[in-house]
Specification:
This protein has 3 domains: 115 residues, CBS-domain, CATH 3.10.580; 127 residues, CBS-domain; 114 residues, 2-Layer Sandwich (Double Stranded RNA Binding Domain), CATH 3.30.160.100. 38% of the residues lie in helices and 26% in strands. Pfam families: CBS (PF00571). Keywords: CBS domain.
Length: 385
């Protein structure tokens, strides 16, 4: 099955010059996960805006255009497989992706549709096999401002809310948009109509959803996703005796679909870890773009394996920025290389580290082509410089 068979032809979109207020309305009316942004001049795809974008500090939706918050997406064609769509969604942490023809958006494919159309592949996989066990939570008395900060820093769109050790509710990006952002925007227009305007100092319990949809760890993941689709949720809390033992999201359910792709084609999987105080979602996206460009450039040469990027901060500061150290390790069935880079931004540090690996790779290829006993000589070379 390919993307064209399941993509939505009627999808939410806006022109790049339109204000964020229009996107807020679409999120409310259509319950969309993303809104596609189209260039008004030529009709080409600009990117998508996600609900997480609404968490940016000091955001004025009436003055910010769609282009400003649009996230660039990988090219997805109608002929691409569901496995390819799942891979792109998982790498970019997006619940939906636009499908393009000649650079122009022609459809939208959602994570839920990919999963529900992979039933045969996923029929024996339970929630316990893929759920996230290290759950990020907030307390019912924590402020809305703290919940927003946690979502922004951790790159998540929902947080289970606890009272003691017991699940009391859940707060999502949708809750914040509907109960905090929109009422404050209406208030600035003088149109409150009796609606309560909450500040960021209000407790999370004032906006959380109390009737939390839960799932058992033993339940099949396709059935769990069908339950999400039926009730309009993007995640389910996994509980045991009213205690949170995990959280199950659409991204978790995509993992087995992507795993099958890794088994059937030559592929380099990108793994990124951060030992840093705070990493913005935009910085993570730039890092993935750098890694994707490297992998695509050398895909035919690298074989199967893993490209790991590890980031940490030094004490050196330049204004508010700290010097970032990146250690890149390529471990495939053909090569093992290590490269190190430092810069004031994570993506620039990654680019420097990958340049080191690129030089090592080109040296090996040149030696292998030049010398008749290249393979024996290469085996004696060190795997890192």
């Amino acid at each position: 099955m390919n993307v064209q068979e399941i993509m939505l032809k009627d999808f939410p979109w806006v022109y790049d010059s339109e204000p964020l207020t229009k996107i807020l309305g679409i999120f409310s009316d259509r319950k969309a996960d993303v809104v596609v942004v189209e260039n008004k001049a030529n009709g080409r795809l600009v990117g998508v805006v996600t609900k997480r974008a609404m968490l940016k500090p000091n955001l004025n939706p009436s003055k910010v255009s769609a282009r400003t918050l649009a996230v660039r997406t990988p090219r997805l064609r109608p002929s691409d497989s569901l496995h390819t769509a799942a891979k792109h969604m998982l790498e970019r942490n997006l619940k939906a992706l636009p499908v393009t023809e000649a650079g122009k958006p022609s459809g939208l494919v959602t994570a839920a549709d990919v999963i529900l159309n992979s039933r045969e592949l996923l029929r024996k996989i339970s929630v316990s096999k893929v759920m996230t066990r290290e759950v990020i939570t907030v307390d019912a008395e924590d402020t809305i401002g703290r919940a927003i900060s946690v979502m922004r820093d951790e790159g998540v769109s929902r947080l289970p809310v606890l009272e003691g050790d017991t699940l009391a509710g859940i707060v999502t990006v949708t809750d914040i948009v509907e109960r905090v952002v929109k009422p404050r925007l209406k208030s600035s227009w003088g149109d409150v109509v009796g609606e309560k305007v909450r500040t960021l100092s209000n407790p999370v319990k004032s906006i959380m959803t109390r009737n939390v949809m839960t799932v058992q760890a033993s339940e099949n993941i396709v059935d769990a996703v069908a339950k999400m689709r039926q009730h309009g949720f993007s995640c389910l809390v996994v509980t045991e005796r009213h205690r949170v033992v995990g959280i199950f999201t659409l991204m978790d359910a995509l993992e087995p679909v992507v795993a099958q792709l890794r088994e059937t084609e030559r592929n380099i999987v990108v793994e990124v870890s951060y030992k840093m105080e705070r990493v913005a979602v935009e910085d993570k996206e730039r890092v993935m773009e750098v890694a994707d460009r490297f992998v695509k450039r050398f895909r035919k040469t690298l074989g199967n394996g893993v490209l790991s990027l590890y980031f940490k901060e030094h004490r050196e500061k330049h204004g508010d920025m700290r010097l970032v150290h990146c250690r890149a390790r390529l471990n495939s069935d053909r090569f093992q290389f290590v490269g190190v880079g430092e810069a004031w931004r994570a993506d620039l540090a990654a680019r420097t580290a990958l340049k080191v690996i690129e030089r090592q790779l080109l040296v090996r290829k040149e030696l292998a082509a030049r010398y008749p006993y290249g393979s024996e000589f290469l085996e004696s070379l060190p795997t890192s410089y």
